[in-house]
Amino acid sequence: MSDTPKEKYLLSCDWGTSTFRLRLVQREPVSVVAEVRSDQGAQRLAAHLPPRREARYREVLGQARRELSQRTDITLQAVPTLISGMASATIGWRELPYVPVPVPLAGEALLCTEVDKDPVTVLVSGICTATEVMRGEETEILGLMSLSRYEARREAARLILPGTHSKHVRVEQGSIADFVTHMTGELWGLLTEQSTLSYAATPETWRQEPESSVQESFTQGVRAAQEEPLTSLLFQVRAHQVLLGWEGAANAAYLRGVLLGAELGALGREGSANSPILLCAGPQHTAWYAKALEVLGGSRRLTVVPEATMNLAATLGHIHIARALGL
User: Fold this and answer.
1) Are the C-beta atoms of residues 158 and 278 closer than 8 Å to each other?
2) Can you give the CATH number for the domain in which 46 is found?
3) How many angstroms separate the CA atoms of 199 and 242, rounded?
4) Prediction pTM value
5) Residue 312 carries which DSSP code?
6) What is the pLDDT of residue 239?
7) CA 260 → CA 29, 58, 176, 315, distances in Å?
8) Are 237 and 264 contained in the same domain?
9) What pLDDT, on a 0 to 100 scale, did the predictor assign at position 311?
10) What per-residue confidence (pLDDT) applies to 248?
11) DSSP string of 68-135?
12) Which runs of consecutive H residues, i.e. helices, occur in the chain?
């Protein structure tokens, strides 16, 4: 007897601040059958006051479900939907409290709330420490750590998830034990677009791999961040242009080195001096973070999660959580 759509498929939804993504996924073996993306992120839907906002969330999700059903010719009424990200935030579908660490990687301790029964629709909340919060990344982490290839890392590892707000996550004894947030990406944007440094650095290099012509500048920035205060080093970007005639690309590489050096230099203070490192990054970040870790002597402990695996991280997390919930 073949599996029913409910048993065979899952609807995996990543509802971000600015974007919405719904995937129809096959559970075993894991594969994306089809997906819908739009700009109907939580920030846009937050313009509506409750209960209109809740209705808009249902409308956006319902429209995406119908589109997937039409595109694949699969009846999705019985297929459950798991939603992570900003849909459970203050500006979301329904605000859910954060679950404090430690959070077992098995997934059963996450706060999951059913917002609709037909079809079954479940919101996954975020996690917190005494001083930090996270929504969305916890699902990616559970998904990645559910893979057999990372089984040995469940006992002790440091996961680095770069982004606007980069997360350093400490995994210990099968649980997310702690995490720290670094505003590296946001600082880069502010400094290269809105500060006086924008005249001295070329921001486009943020999305390029470190070319040989600027690698030395990048390395210099990473090393300098281990010796001098960040606020002092930032102004040197301007001084490099005025006094030394540095080009914008070299200055941007130096600035990025300073920011990544400041972020990654904190790993030792965060209690992970000898732990294996999993770099969980998209293509725009991987090469830069890997190079910075090499400069800091962390290459031997580093494992880079493949881009294809990172692209499935949230989906793997939804499948893992659905299994824990019996869905």
Assistant:
1) yes
2) 3.30.420.300
3) 11
4) 0.93
5) T
6) 87
7) 37, 40, 23, 28
8) yes
9) 97
10) 84
11) HHHHHT---TTS-EEEEEGGGSTTSSS--PPEESPEETTSTTS-EEEEEETTEEEEE--EE-SS-EES
12) 5-8, 42-45, 52-72, 137-145, 184-193, 212-224, 230-244, 248-264, 283-295, 307-311, 313-325
Which candidate, 210, 213, 194, places its Cα nearest to that of 284? 210
**What is the DSSP code (8-state) at residue 154?**
G
Between CA 293 and CA 287 the distance in angstroms is: 10
For residues 42 and 159, state if they share a domain.
no
| First CA to last CA distance, the chain | 19
Q: How far, in Å, CA of 163 to CA of 286, rounded?
A: 11
Considering the domain boundaries, does residue 287 fall inside one? yes
Domain hosting residue 291, numbered range = 154-307
pLDDT at 313: 98
Entry field: residues in the chain? 327
Interhelix angle for 283-295 vs 212-224, to 10°?
Answer: 60
Q: Which tens digits make up the pLDDT trace of 65-122?
A: 999 999 999 999 999 999 999 999 999 999 999 999 999 999 999 999 999 998 999 9
Whether residue 182 sits in one domain with residue 125: no
Residue 107 zone, left/alpha/beta (φ > 0; ψ -120 to 50; rest): left
Per-residue pLDDT at 270: 67
Residue 71 to residue 298: CA distance in whole angstroms: 46
45 three-class SS:
helix
Residues 164, 87: one domain?
A: no
Residues 291 and 171 in one domain: yes
- Residue 171's pLDDT is 97
Provide DSSP, 221-234: HHHHTTTS-HHHHH
State which residues of the chain have pLDDT below 70: 1-4, 203-210, 270-273
Residue with tokens 């429209």: 63
